[in-house]
Amino acid sequence: MHRRLEILAKTGYAVLGDYRGPAISPREWERLEYLEWKSGGDTNFAPLASATGELDCRGFWDHGKPDKGGIWTSNREIAPSLARYVESIGGEYGRVRVIKLNPSSEQEALRCLHLDDNNRLNPDGTGWVVRSWLELADTADQTVFILREDKNDPSTETRIPLHPGKQVVIDTERLWHVVWHPGPKPRYALITSWESSPVIDNWITSQADPTQLVSVG
Question: Is 164:135 a contact under the CB 8 Å cutoff?
Answer without folding.
Answer: yes
